[in-house]
Design brief:
Chain lengths: ~130, ~400
């Protein structure tokens, strides 16, 4: 361990937990963050583990995504290679990306302020965790 | 002039060089040099009334280092930006008190601007003309060039804001010259004038299979979306993507290529990834990362007696190659990290990482364990590229500090 002095062992407790508690290793296995983080409302990693209900982006933009998909399907009914069709599907992509960003922003807003602070400042005293 | 936001800087140096096209008007206002464009853009932008003013104040000796990041929508630009700004220290946040839909991120050292802000056609305009945002005709490269050039020369600009929610162009926001400017979006390397302003450029090259898997993960929870709609959107955008976005990778100093794994035969889940870091040789202030022996060809499976890995394991390879006629070195990682000691072990076998202390790559990956890709090559190589950019920045600053001394001698 002496060689790892540069590494802040206190930051994300995830990996250590994973090796330390095999009974729930499947839930906090390090293989998870990729999948979980990309799924809206996934498990929050860190100090507090909780499960949020799956939530789509804020309503306004969700409606726009839904609407744009309908429009794209209509626009492409005639000629699927027309500029109109392609532009309509491009709009779907743009709105879907915006919805995803809105979800991320909301998640950040909803999460524990201390958690957020400690993510950027793991070395501060209020963010250190100690093992007895 | 009443609409101008006047922003005063420390010292106005004489090298207030402003290169502008003929349509630009100049006016001198006390200590500030103001140039603004009228007419041309307004007519191009249809209904939008946002007039653009460019307030110019040159900071004497500071020159902004400009980084370009190109990738398609939904291919991990935001995650990469969060990793990059984290390497520089401090969190990057939207401009305080500004438009809540601003696409800009600002930290102590770095400002990230989104090139969608240079759309010349808003959502309605694109729909009417039947062009996508990927199409150069939907983007104002003249303004992009003028403004990036101005910032690079230490001059603040009033940059438009493309609102991704409404699809309209919002009133502009003031961008002050940062130490490092990142321009991210669909076309940072498309226009040769903009390309020439870049001190370093990165392209995120996501294979079709992985793109599909990522978009399913992103969109399936969204109402109205289905596998069909996700596929249709990718397919419809493909011709423009291949014509205008993909070719930019030939200009990139570093390409991060994301492919399905080869460790599991016929895997198409897109969960385990094979990621290649393609690094151009001979780029100023950038010396590529290597495995064991610079310039040799190596295949390495770190899992064995010293390190136990779970299925399907981890495989690295490294070697020289050519990419679009350029000499490159490629580091490749297939598989994923399941435990901390695997990452530490891998980091200790990579050379030329430009870390400031042992374990810095691992620390960065741990710090953002909740970001997508923190357990595979995408996170690893994004972090490494972040470290290389920090190193490049420090070299540029150091060489500037030396120049006056050399001139005297």
């Amino acid at each position: 361990m002496a060689t790892m002095t540069g590494v802040s062992l206190s930051s994300p407790r995830v990996w250590f937990n994973a090796s330390g508690s095999p009974q729930n290793a499947h839930a906090i296995n390090f293989a998870l963050p990729l999948r979980q983080a990309m799924r809206p409302g996934g498990i929050q990693m860190g100090r507090v583990t909780r499960i949020r209900p799956v939530r789509a982006a804020p309503d306004k933009i969700s409606e726009k995504v839904e609407e744009s998909i309908k429009q794209a399907q209509e626009a492409c009914a005639g000629d699927p290679t027309s500029g109109e069709c392609v532009a309509a599907w491009d709009e779907v992509e743009e709105l879907s990306a915006a919805a995803s960003h809105a979800r991320d922003k909301q998640k950040e807003k909803d999460s524990d302020p201390l958690e957020n602070y400690c993510k950027d400042n793991p070395e501060t005293i209020e963010c250190k965790t100690f093992d007895d | 002039m009443a609409a101008c936001t006047v922003y005063s800087t420390q010292s106005l140096s004489t090298n207030c060089s402003i290169s502008t096209p003929s349509k630009t008007q100049f006016s001198f206002h006390q200590k500030q040099v103001v140039f603004y464009t009228t007419g041309r853009r307004n007519s191009k932008r249809g209904s939008n009334s946002g007039r653009s003013y460019v307030i110019t104040c040159a900071a004497s000796d500071q020159q902004t280092v400009v980084i370009g990041l190109a990738a398609d929508s939904g291919c991990g630009k935001s995650t990469f930006m969060r990793r990059l700004t984290s390497v520089f220290g401090g969190a990057a946040e939207p401009p305080k008190g500004g438009n809540p839909d601003s696409n800009t991120l600002i930290s102590d050292t770095t400002t990230v601007i989104c090139l969608d802000d240079y759309h010349s056609l808003d959502r309605t305009g694109r729909k009417e003309k039947g062009v996508t945002a990927l199409d150069p005709r939907a983007n104002d490269f003249d303004l992009m060039y003028e403004q990036v050039k101005a910032i690079k020369d230490g001059i603040s600009v009033e940059k438009p804001i493309y609102n991704h929610v409404t699809g309209l162009l919002d009133p502009p926001e003031l961008i002050k010259p940062p130490k490092i400017l990142v321009i991210e979006g669909l076309h940072p390397m498309f226009d040769s004038r903009v390309r020439d302003l870049l001190d370093f450029s990165i392209y995120l090259d996501i294979s079709n299979e992985v793109k599909f898997a990522w978009k399913i993960q992103r969109d399936m929870a969204e109402r109205g979306h289905s596998l069909e709609s996700i596929k249709a959107s990718i397919e419809a955008r493909k011709p423009d993507f291949e014509a205008y976005i993909d070719p930019q990778k030939q200009y990139a100093d570093a390409v991060i290529e994301v492919l399905p794994t080869q460790l599991i035969p016929d895997d198409n889940e897109g969960k385990i990834l094979r990621v290649r870091l393609i690094q151009k040789e001979g780029v100023k202030n950038f010396s590529p990362v290597y495995l064991f022996d610079d310039g040799s060809t190596i295949s390495w499976i770190p899992c064995g007696r010293k390190l136990t890995c779970s299925y399907p394991g981890i495989k690295f390879s490294y070697g020289p190659d050519t990419y679009y006629g350029n000499e490159v070195s490629i580091v490749e990682m297939d598989g994923q990290f399941d435990r901390l000691d695997e990452l530490i072990y891998v980091e200790s076998h990579l050379s030329n990482l430009s870390t400031k202390f042992y374990g810095e790559v691992t620390q960065q990956m741990l710090k953002h364990a909740d970001f997508p890709g923190s357990n595979n090559g995408t996170g690893l190589f994004q972090t490494i590229v972040g470290l290389k950019i920090r190193d490049l920045y420090e070299q540029i600053i150091a060489s500037r500090a030396e120049t006056p001394v050399a001139a005297k001698a």
